[in-house]
Amino acid sequence: MANTLEQPEFGSVGFESEDARRLAHQRHAEHERHRQALNLQRENILSQRTSNPARRTALEAALAQIEAQIHAME
Prior knowledge:
The chain has about 70 residues and is an all-alpha fold.
């Protein structure tokens, strides 16, 4: 009877491809979380209203930086 903790016997190529697939999935998930965070920051900036010209300039600069980061991810 096989021990449930034993790993199946595959060649090292099988494990490498599984590890590579898992790593690619983790990178993709991290990339998507980063994109979501940038989009939330963008929406937050867009929702802010101010009559202060200095504050408005700062918000515009922050928005430009975030949009550049989003564009660079594409």
